Amino acid sequence: MTINREYITFSNHEPLDLRMLTTFGLSVKNSTSPIGMFGTGLKYAIAVLLRNNCEVKLKIDDTYYTFHTQKHNIRNTESSVIYMHNTKDGTDIQLPMTDNFGRNWKVWQAIRELYSNCLDEGGRMNDVIEQDRTVIYVKGEEAEKVLSEFHYYFIDPTRMKLVYSGQRVDIYERFEMNLGNLIDGVNTRVFYRGIYTGNDWERSASFIYNFKTNMTLTEDRSILHAFEPKNALIDEILSTCYDEEFLMRYINNAFRDSMEGSLTYNRLQPSSAFINACKTLLQKDQIIPSWAMGIYEQTLPMIERYKTAHLSTFDEAMLTRVIKVLAHHDEYVSRDQIRVVRSLRDNVMGMYIKKDDTILINREVFNRGEVILLGTIYEELLHKRHDFEDESRTMQNYLVDKVASLLTRVYNMEKDNG
Description:
By secondary structure, the chain is α+β, with helices and mostly antiparallel strands.
């Protein structure tokens, strides 16, 4: 962002009522759905900026106000109380806070607060016009640093390309249009109505998200419930978006280790566009995330969900030996209960389908050898016989007991033969 000004300015057409600075809990924004609603944000911003050696001035119509602190000794503790000075009549107004108000707030949060107020009031930043009746001026190194990193804290159309605009969320590419490289760090951030909330995805995202639907905010504008953004996103992608081309691109970029890869199915009825996008990707032998595969599978008869794989004579013989090994240890499964398929979602190696009493085995397992095939079928057989869940303590205990039993048998056999 080019700097050719003395102050950062935040302005709008509405005159600020000074009671907004002297009263807590008063929120009377000129907006039907404001970002801020607690009546404390402006006071936080002024305190944080003063504490960080920034100059703050306020103009209401033709009157200018400056802000400064005075030392007060309260119960043997020195505090810097904030005052507002009227430059027209020379009077000072003591504000109801010190510069330690919002002690955990950072300068970027103060700038975000002032910018959010602009958005709520239909105002602008760094673009004062004649009709503006309220202007806030900020000067300081820390404040300028925030603006130099504008795209970290605000949706910046000059560096983010909008690729989808929906009812609940706008989705941007994470590439800078002018430089063609990644905007480091931005793709972990959650934006709400154009501002960074302070919330971050637990994994790096393939896209940048600006949520528009109502969410529950805390007083520092972070989203209270971490599940709200993901719920809004999956609702949008699954049931509201009808752009098949975008959906194909989105699903194809939902990598396992990305935020998009960790979305969960919320049981909404998927749109025809979503189903068609999944179908097209699978026809092109593209891997799709487990949540998308799970949704797509629910729309298909079981017989159509997984394609049966052809086994060579060698592989069929390997499977026969594995079944005999299991039977030798009193773990019985018949050949007709095992179905080898071309692939399974997320490249898992095996899956037990309880409804059809069938063990599905990924064709890839045979390329990994007989021992891996034996382990895969044995694991699914445990799901079948004992209804164990993956990575559960009950399954772990069963396997440990099984290993202990086998160790005992081997020891006895070696001792008898020794």
